[in-house]
Design a protein that fits this description.
The complex is a heterodimer of chains A (141) and B (415).
Chain A: H1 3-14, H2 20-33, E1 47-49, E2 54-62, E3 65-72, H3 75-88, H4 93-97, H5 103-106, H6 121-140
Antiparallel strand pairs in A: 1-2, 2-3
Chain B: H1 14-18, E1 27-28, E2 31-32, E3 34-35, H2 46-59, H3 69-88, E4 97-100, H4 103-118, E5 124-128, H5 137-146, E6 149-153, H6 163-169, E7 174-180, H7 192-201, E8 206-209, H8 221-224, E9 228-232, E10 243-247, H9 249-254, E11 265-268, E12 273-275, H10 289-305, H11 307-326, E13 331-333, E14 343-348, H12 353-362, E15 365-366, E16 368-370, H13 375-381, E17 386-390, H14 397-414
Parallel strand pairs in B: 3-15, 5-6, 5-7, 7-8, 8-9
Antiparallel strand pairs in B: 1-2, 4-10, 9-10, 11-12, 13-14, 14-17, 16-17
The chains are: A alpha+beta (141), B alpha/beta (415).
Chain lengths: 141, 415
């Protein structure tokens, strides 16, 4: 699936929820379910500091694609993180570098990507795109 | 959870008072706002908003300069506000009241001006482990510049100052002590009177960070005898952008100016500038005129309600909240001081404070989550942060009940 298709699928999934409780219960479940990152990668250099919750991000470049794993100490953040990983992981560096992420807004969680939200999600997204740019440049050498 | 006792609020008619605060009628996500983030900033009564509007619609003009009618009117109103503030904390002189941008600005002023004049290499500045970053970093900056040493009074597990350690740290090497009256993260009320008395016995001046005290506890500065006291207007129902530094006349006269500019000078030549008298020596540039005047209006408002009645109402609602929160399984208080005021910090099981804050927010309950700008304190408790509910006299017991319900829902979702 492309980045766009992944996002549209998530939007579709969220369209079934009728209130915020269901939506958040789903996000919390995503956060709880997914063992997102190998413990060895939960190290200082992979830490993206949000003001309140910590996010770890690990990137692996394999056969022209980037595979992300990530984790957070806060479960709601972790759920959001897992969705962003689902959208971007396994895509090409070029697609990741240029990706427009619209699903967060579309499922009514826009505030999580605003600058005032210090949950590290925005920083994580920036970091993922940086990996995209970096690996793209590496491929072009 | 049993809560059979009837919900009654204090002697104050809280429902009537709430009507004075337009924002308390706001809805968030379609539900009535429950505002329990008063330690971050308080809401503004209509009288304060009216005062801001009156200033800009009727007599906006620069102060202390113009000969024209409006300028004189603005100057009078601004200076009248200074008098009200002086009277409110019972300062000996009006010119001991310096208008600042807020608590942070006031502490930076003292750290810089006092530090430049009195701190030498090897001297010590004494703070406590529960200080807000704004009462840590300004001192670190000046200590670094002067080669002075920052000493820290430790706290116990309840979040109270270890006074025996304070006694040991208080030596002749200490040139100034800067201590918070009330902890913004824990709600601990420190024994400020005792601290000041002990410091003064060694001729050590004391700065009190009153950012979390001024709105909860009546302050008589002459009785306290603090050398400096800083607070923010917006935490005592006034606007943001204005604050107050009280300083004893003697210190303010001796200290060099903090910032240079207009209003703070007597005479300027390129060879030498002589400084204006107090308080203007420390008020360079056009001040926050409307903010100062509106802070005066806020003081009028709380005096109209009655400071003692406010304190009583707040103690009641905080005690009620404390009682109800204690009954929640797996809730633990962060900071459990015997003397407390305003704020209650807690954590629930292994739930991250950010997650809890998020689910409370969705239920239109505004609390603060995080380290509250007291990272060293969070390190002491080995936690990433807390959830903090902080109260004002306009908060009701019914709102506390909503908070408890909100927490229970969050627990069900997150645990």
């Amino acid at each position: 699936m492309t980045i766009k298709e992944q996002q549209d699928t998530i939007i579709e999934e969220f369209s079934f929820f009728t209130d915020w409780t269901e939506k958040y219960e789903y996000i919390i479940q995503l956060g709880k379910d997914l063992p997102l990152i190998d413990e060895q990668y939960k190290k200082e250099e992979n830490l993206i500091r949000g003001c309140q919750s910590k996010v770890w991000l690990h990137a692996e470049h394999k056969e022209g694609k980037i595979y992300f794993t990530a984790d957070s100490d806060a479960v709601i953040t972790k759920g959001l993180v897992s969705m962003v990983v689902r959208v971007l992981s396994g895509q090409s560096p070029n697609d990741i570098a240029g990706a427009a992420i619209y699903f967060v807004d579309a499922i009514g969680l826009k505030n999580h990507l605003s600058l005032t939200r210090s949950n590290g999600l925005l920083s994580m997204l920036k970091q993922m795109k940086m990996y995209g740019v970096a690996f793209r440049n590496l491929e072009m050498r | 959870m049993t809560n059979s006792e009837p919900i009654t609020d204090s002697a104050l008619d809280i429902e009537k008072i709430r009507k004075d605060f337009p924002i308390l009628q706001t809805k968030v996500y379609g539900r009535p706002l429950i505002y329990l983030d008063n330690a971050a900033t308080t809401q503004k009564p209509r009288a304060v908003l009216q005062s801001l509007e009156n200033y800009y619609t009727q007599y906006n003009s620069n102060v202390h300069r113009g000969v024209h009618f409006l300028s004189q009117q603005a100057t009078e109103a601004y200076e009248e506000a200074r008098k009200k503030i002086a009277a409110y904390i019972n300062a000996r002189f009006d010119h001991e009241i310096i208008f600042t941008k807020g608590t942070t600005n006031g502490i930076n002023l003292v750290a810089s001006s006092f530090g430049r004049k009195y701190l030498k290499e090897g001297d010590e500045v004494l703070i406590s482990a529960m200080e807000h970053h704004s009462n840590i970093v300004p001192w670190q900056l000046i200590c670094e510049e002067k080669g002075a040493v920052l000493k820290v009074i430790p706290i116990n597990e309840q979040g109270e100052l270890k006074m025996d350690a304070f006694d040991e740290l208080l030596t002749k090497k200490v040139k100034i002590a800067a201590i918070t009256y009330v902890s913004n993260s824990l709600g601990t009320v420190n024994p400020i009177r005792e601290i000041i008395q002990k410091a003064q016995a060694l001729n050590i001046p004391v700065l009190i960070d009153a950012a979390q005290a001024i709105q909860h506890i009546p302050i008589d500065i002459q009785q306290l005898d603090a050398d400096f006291l800083a607070f923010s207007g917006h935490k005592i129902y006034g606007p943001t952008g204005v604050g107050v530094l009280y300083g004893k006349e003697k210190w303010l006269n001796e200290m060099p100016p903090y910032e240079g500019g207009g209003d703070m000078i007597k005479n300027v030549t390129f060879a030498k500038t002589t400084y204006n008298e107090l308080p203007f020596k420390f008020e360079a540039g056009t001040p926050d005129i409307s903010g100062g005047i509106a802070l005066g209006a806020a003081i009028d408002y709380i005096q109209h309600i009655g400071v003692a009645a406010i304190q009583q109402a707040e103690e009641e609602v905080v005690a009620y909240a404390y009682g109800r929160l204690s009954a929640i399984p797996s809730l633990r208080f962060i900071g459990d001081a015997q003397h407390r005021s305003g704020a209650i910090s807690f954590l629930i099981g292994n739930i991250h404070p950010y997650d809890l804050g998020e689910i409370l927010d969705k239920q239109s309950i505004a609390v603060r989550t995080g380290h509250h700008c007291t990272q060293p304190l969070m390190d002491f408790f080995h936690i990433p942060g807390t959830v903090r509910a902080s109260f004002a006299f306009y908060n009701t017991k019914a709102e506390v009940d909503e908070l408890v319900k909100g927490i229970e829902k969050a627990k069900r979702m997150l645990e």
